[in-house]
Amino acid sequence: MLFSTGQVFGFPVDLKVVTLQLQQDMRDDWYRDALGYTDIFSDHEYVADVVLNCLNSWGGQYYGDHRTVRPIPKKKHAERYSLETDVFDRFVYQAVCTFLAPNLDSALSHRVLSYRVNRGAEDTKYLFRNKISKWLDYEGLTYRFVANKGALAATDVSNFFENVSAKQVVSALHMAVERVAASGYRKGQMLSAVRLLERLFERWTLNGEFGLPQNRDCSSFLSNVLLSQVDFEMQKRGYDYYRYVDDIRVVCADEHEARRSLQVLISLLRDVGMNINSTKTDVLSYDSPISLIGEHFPSQNELVLAIASMWKSRSRRVFIRSIEYIIAILKEALETGDTQSRTFRFAVNRISQLIEAKLFDVESDDSKALMKYALSTLSDDAVSSDQLCKLILVLEPEPEVLSNIELFLLARETCIHDWQNHKLWLLLAALRFEGDGLKELAKTVLAEDPSTGEAAGVMIWLQSVGYLDPVEGLIDTYTDSWPFQNQRYFLIAIGAMPADKLNKLNGKVPEKLIGTTNRSKKSFREDGVAISKREQPSFKALYEDIKDYS
Q1: Could you give the CA distance from residue 514 to residue 505 in angstroms, rounded to a whole number?
Q2: Which residues are paired to 250 by β-bridges?
Q3: What is the pLDDT of residues 318-335, one digit of tens each?
Q4: Is 432 left (phi over 0), alpha (psi -120 to 50) or beta?
Q5: Long-range pairs, 285-288, Cβ under 8 A, ≥24
Q6: 280: closest CA among 263, 292, 270, 271?
């Protein structure tokens, strides 16, 4: 009642809806929780109690806890940073977005296709319209330059989420609130939400001002608000302009106009502290090489179009026929190293869904070939580790494959990416694969630094194989200065230990993690492993999951 009436934050919060939308958003987290936080989200009252207790301890204002910085590999040996926050701070961030987005969506340009509010949705877990559908709209609208025999300026904003100024986001939100048609009372609620965000950013940004948590629906929506002044100004100047998050395109009559549009865009982006990414900027002509145009329009790939069309049917037979095309995309991407493309991710998601719906034979020659390709790319393609691990898991690898992953992890001079190692340990945990070399390595990783991303993955692996000596050794050195995920996984891993050993932690565990050890057990798999249960969708559920809900 306190949340829904706005007494907690100054704006109404529907605990159930916010939780559903947050769970949907977290599906693509870089450091996705091993249990999907089902132990927490299953009890809305518990979430409410923790947030209220935090408010009390912070003097009636919610400030959030400090973020953790994690490196995430990018293409060409570069790295981005991930600003990781705890699940309760994520809940508050989602609550702000769930309230603000429907109120401010009308203040955005219709030329922005990303993260638009899904008004009138039957299922409230979808705050925004279908991302795949809106991306296809974006491609379709900008692909017109070919039929028009014109040109296209295609670019994206350089390191947007790393460089964004929290102060400018807050300023843009104030301007958006002014523009929107709403009562004074409603605008007051919106400003309460903005003030809450301002406090959170002080602890979440990289240095107190720059950087937003990436890979979050909320951050993507805020990018729409910040860039809205650029959107409107480009339209005001007569450009046929479109944007999808930080990807920007201008449909032009010729290449000269396209180049001029980029100059104008650069000038406007400078006003919000941004610039274009020169390595991802092209001026395309309608008669440019097909391969160059295809780099910007992956969904125009004939195989992708065929698959998308087939998956709109309700026919099991047609779904199965699409496997041939999906396999072709996966093989080509793995062979050419093009595993960061939208096309590859599209195909991985499709084949995973088919396997989980039991429409694809994991014993087939195609399956074995995919497994071989995926394994061979691990060392050279850390950036795609999440997709590769997902593919390997659903293909049900033989012990020989897992032994090769063990050897990869043991070769410390080559397995240098903390995030990739985290993913690989969780993959081995999901399959309960153990080896003496892994046990020794696990001890070393935890002894060297129990606060790394890899260490968090190691803790879940140790729990999965029942080898608890290394985590028991951390009981005396446990500290609430570890990242939230490392503390959580540690408390999950020690769950099987005797009470007298666990009692040593009394008084050391912070409010947001009290009760984790016992609460988490109800979300373990049937075999006792602290990994969320894999869904086994029916054919009907598979169709419902992929159809457009925009």
Answers
A1: 10
A2: 153, 241
A3: 888 888 888 888 888 888
A4: left
A5: 285/151, 285/255, 286/145, 286/146, 286/147, 286/148, 286/149, 286/150, 286/151
A6: 292
Q: What is the largest CA-CA distance in the chain?
A: 76
Q: pLDDT tens, 195-242?
A: 999 999 999 998 888 999 999 999 999 999 999 999 999 999 999 999
CA atoms within 13 A on the CB side of 439: 11
Q: Three-state secondary structure along 135-177?
A: HHHHHHHHCHHHHCCCEEEEEEECCHHHHCEHHHHHHHHHHHH
Q: Who contacts 381 (Cβ-Cβ below 8 Å, separation ≥6)?
A: 337, 339, 388
Residues forming beta bridges with residue 240, ordered by sequence position: 251
Residue 453 to residue 290: CA distance in whole angstroms: 41
CA distance linking residue 137 with residue 140, whole number of Å: 5
Measure the CA dihedral 348/349/353/358, to 10°: 0
Beta-bridge partner residues of 84: 68
- What digits encode the pLDDT tens for the residues 118-151? 988 788 999 999 887 898 899 999 999 999 999 9
**What pLDDT digit, counting tens, does each position of 444-460 carry?**
999 999 999 999 999 99
Amino acid at 545: D
Using CA atoms, how far apart are residues 250 and 269, in angstroms rounded to an integer?
Answer: 15
Residue pointed to by tokens 């153990």:
434
| Cα torsion angle, 178, 180, 184, 188, sign | negative
In angstroms and rounded to an integer, the radius of gyration of the C-alpha atoms of the chain is 24
Q: How far is CA 510 from CA 28, 57, 69, in A?
A: 27, 12, 20
**Chain CA centroid to CA 185, Å:** 34
Backbone angles phi, psi at 284, to 5 degrees: -100, 140
Structural contact between residues 51 and 91, judged by C-beta atoms closer than 8 angstroms: yes
By CB atoms closer than 10 A (0-12, 13-18, 19+), residue 36 is middle
Element (H, E) at 433: none
Cα-Cα-Cα-Cα torsion 406, 410, 412, 414, nearest 10 degrees, comes to -40
Tokens of 465: 């194989």
What b/e string do you get for 46-70 counting C-beta neighbours within 10 Å, with b at 16 or more? ebbebbeebeeeeeeebbbbbbbeb
Rounded Cα distance between 31 and 33, Å, is 6
Contact 354, 396 (CB under 8 A): no
Distance CA 84, CA 82 (A): 6
- φ, ψ of residue 280 to 5 degrees: the values are -115, 25
Sheet containing 247-252, strands listed edge to edge, beginning at the edge strand earlier in sequence: 240-244, 247-252, 151-156, 282-285
* Structural contact between residues 196 and 92, judged by C-beta atoms closer than 8 angstroms: yes
Q: Which residue has the tokens 């937003």?
A: 212
Q: Which residues contact 351 (CB under 8 A, 6 or more apart)?
A: 323, 326, 327, 330, 360, 370, 391, 394
